[in-house]
Structure to design on (742 residues):
């Protein structure tokens, strides 16, 4: 099953490569990875998604925790959580009927058209990964030129938080 | 306040970290550091002949003493030559700090002369690593490096220092931190009390228990605690290859080593156990054999300081994360308070069964191989002779192969830190440099290198270091003129097709070679000479002696687990199996 793992990491050189290296070294796959500093610029927040059963997820969390630079590690999938991913899609939109269809599709998915040329529309869309997948399927036949996805960012629901 | 250059700060910091010896090899990027070394008397440097040996020697020193070993190498090839040594220490959880010179900061990334991304290259085989970018950060980084290396599950830490950071013309204030605190690194010490209570109750209720211990007992200096608990419970104990000496090899509760070349009684007892108490061991594939068939009826209690080790290969029913000493201490206290005792009758029956296995097929109750005769010297007999002549009191280092297994089986270690070998990585070439580290740590003890003509040639250049620094180790070369363990596998699995495992026409005259380095060489070809020559060898206290002993090349290491089987599925000799 899909796992969303959140990590609070020292914002130091080499820290990210240790996390990424761990996955290849131990034979785990990374499906998506996002990383950026937090409100405290000595810390990076990293979210990665991977596939694995409970035992594998437990090992991954333990192995990540063992890295000296990691401060906290949580498997968000264990509890109730929110996941969001940002996607930018450039789609062929030269003809009027296609432009109209695309606009209504973007509206249904609550996206935004953020750039327009005579030949293309660029659409911005945020949501969970399934929603982004569904949008791609919906507009695939219209002619997708380029897709950029940020990878999943996640946070737990309610009062739980990941902080030093 | 006194101002120091980066090079001087580094050496001062090493002194403040308690370092007395550094094993290393100079080179361009490390020259400021070597100049700082030259101008002081607190830290002693031992020049080796290859960087791999520097790391192995520091590693051997650490294994023999429990202190953190230190190696110093230059950038590029110096750093990459150190890699095998670092990986060796990493696999066996040995506390080490490896300092590598690096090209100047401004040259990093430019493919400069002797540039290697040491932090990147070593990343999968270190506990942690640092690239120091300011002279101001050196002391604190060194303090952190020694703290990380020696706490929790120990391991090697690399500190990579660009040349301009140690520039003698740039001086800053020296400050050694009174204590190291890291928000991201707080190793677990004490185990969970509730789990520990459960573990004690499970042990007391056991009918067929086995205590299975590994390198963790040795590394954490927990042998006394282990002995106290084992004696209190009267339970059988088996050690892994890394754990030898953690429990006295001559004690009657000791079953011998377990695993691929473990004893029949240890492996069979494990298979039939109802409770397995694993302490500081990691259920390595060389122990468990096929995981699916591993100890089908056992409740597993597993203590380890590293949470990732617990339930990694074998699911533990009672996992406890904590140091061996703290958890065993607590278990002893709890066992003392409980009113219940182990079921004496069940344990007596279990011992009866184990003793039966010992008598039937154990390697200590009778000789299970053809004895030596004339020029056919059995390698096992050489180890037995070594044991006899050193009264079991030598520090024995080994290389990797058949000789390593014979030493592990037939030299009975009564104390920890006497058996020094590369168990996890299996590094040929480890034995001689590691012995140098041991001899440096314990100049008054006999240090023997049990090796073969294959392994010894991988770091034989260190005979020169032994000369320069007066390190009189005794090399026991079990020379079968073949890569023995490879050959054994070729006998067993490849119809004796000896692909690249024989080279007898090209072997050096080891006696002359030893003499060329200024040492004593001896060649033994007849069993009748062995005892006298070996006595002579150990009587020469201040000489490095190379004993080249021609042993029977057809000999195999037995017992040997059968691939894909359970622990008790063993070859007992070439024709007999369980």
């Amino acid at each position: 099953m899909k796992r969303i793992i959140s990590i609070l990491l020292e914002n130091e050189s080499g820290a990210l490569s240790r996390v990424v290296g761990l996955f290849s070294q131990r034979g785990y796959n990374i499906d998506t990875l996002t990383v950026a500093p937090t409100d405290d610029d000595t810390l990076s927040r990293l979210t990665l998604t991977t596939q694995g059963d409970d035992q594998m997820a437990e090992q991954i969390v333990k192995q990540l925790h063992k890295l000296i630079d990691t401060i906290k590690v949580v498997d968000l999938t264990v509890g109730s959580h929110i996941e969001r991913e940002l996607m930018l899609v450039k789609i062929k939109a030269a003809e009027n009927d296609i432009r109209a269809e695309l606009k209504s599709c973007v509206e249904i998915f609550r996206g935004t058209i953020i750039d327009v040329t005579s030949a293309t529309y660029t659409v911005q869309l945020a949501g969970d990964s399934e929603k982004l997948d569904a949008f791609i399927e919906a507009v695939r036949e219209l002619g997708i030129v380029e897709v950029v996805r940020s990878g999943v960012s996640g946070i737990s629901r309610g009062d739980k938080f990941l902080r030093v | 306040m006194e101002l120091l250059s980066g090079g001087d700060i580094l050496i001062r910091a090493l002194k403040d970290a308690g370092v007395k010896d550094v094993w290393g090899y100079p080179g361009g990027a490390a020259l400021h550091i070597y100049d700082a070394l030259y101008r002081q008397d607190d830290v002693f440097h031992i020049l080796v002949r290859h960087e791999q040996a520097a790391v192995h020697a520091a590693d051997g020193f650490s294994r023999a003493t429990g202190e953190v070993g230190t190696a110093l190498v230059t950038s590029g090839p110096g750093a990459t030559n150190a890699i095998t040594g670092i990986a060796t220490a990493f696999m066996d959880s040995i506390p080490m700090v490896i300092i590598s010179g690096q090209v100047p900061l401004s040259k990093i990334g430019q493919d400069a002369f002797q540039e290697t991304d040491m932090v990147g290259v070593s990343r999968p085989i270190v506990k942690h690593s640092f690239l120091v970018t300011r002279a101001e950060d050196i002391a604190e980084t060194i303090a952190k490096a020694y703290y990380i290396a020696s706490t929790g599950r120990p391991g090697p830490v690399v500190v990579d220092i660009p040349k301009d950071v140690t520039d003698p013309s740039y001086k800053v204030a020296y400050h050694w931190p009174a204590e190291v605190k890291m928000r991201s690194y707080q190793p677990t010490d004490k185990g969970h009390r509730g789990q520990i209570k459960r573990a004690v109750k499970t042990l007391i209720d056991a009918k067929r228990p086995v205590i299975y211990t590994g390198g963790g007992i040795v590394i954490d200096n927990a042998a006394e605690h282990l002995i106290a608990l084992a004696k209190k419970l009267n339970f059988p104990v088996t050690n892994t290859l890394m754990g030898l000496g953690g429990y006295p090899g001559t004690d009657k509760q000791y079953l011998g080593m377990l695993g691929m070349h473990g004893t029949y009684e240890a492996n069979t007892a494990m298979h039939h156990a109802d409770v397995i108490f694993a302490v500081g061991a990691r259920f390595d594939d060389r122990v468990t054999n096929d995981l699916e068939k591993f100890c089908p009826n056992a409740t597993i209690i597993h203590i380890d300081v590293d949470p990732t080790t617990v339930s990694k290969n074998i699911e533990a029913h009672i996992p406890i994360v904590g140091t061996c000493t703290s958890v065993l201490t607590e278990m002893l206290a709890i066992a003392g308070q409980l009113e219940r005792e182990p079921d004496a009758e069940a344990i007596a029956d279990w011992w009866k069964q184990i003793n039966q296995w010992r008598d039937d097929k154990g390697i200590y109750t009778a000789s299970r191989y053809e004895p030596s005769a004339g020029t056919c010297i059995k390698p096992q007999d050489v180890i037995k002779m070594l044991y006899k002549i050193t009264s079991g009191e030598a520090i024995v280092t080994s290389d990797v192969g058949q000789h390593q297994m014979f030493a592990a089986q037939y030299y009975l270690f009564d104390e920890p830190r006497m058996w020094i070998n590369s168990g996890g990585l299996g590094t040929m070439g480890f034995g001689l440099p590691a012995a140098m580290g041991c001899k440096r740590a314990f100049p008054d003890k006999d240090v023997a290198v049990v090796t073969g003509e294959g392994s010894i040639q991988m770091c034989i250049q260190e005979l020169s270091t032994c000369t320069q620094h007066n390190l009189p180790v005794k090399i026991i070369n079990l020379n079968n003129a073949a890569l023995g363990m490879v050959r054994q596998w070729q006998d067993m699995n490849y119809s004796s097709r000896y692909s690249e495992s024989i080279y007898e026409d090209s072997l050096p005259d080891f006696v002359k070679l030893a003499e060329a380095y200024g040492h004593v060489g001896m060649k033994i070809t007849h069993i009748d000479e062995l005892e006298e020559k070996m006595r002579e060898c150990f009587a020469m206290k201040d000489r490095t002696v190379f004993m080249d002993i021609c042993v029977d090349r057809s000999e195999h290491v037995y017992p040997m687990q059968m691939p894909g089987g359970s622990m008790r599925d063993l070859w007992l000799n070439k024709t007999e199996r369980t």
Notes: The interface with chain A takes residues 119-120, 123-124, 127-129, 131, 148, 182-185, 306-308, 311-312, 315 of chain B (CB under 8 Å).
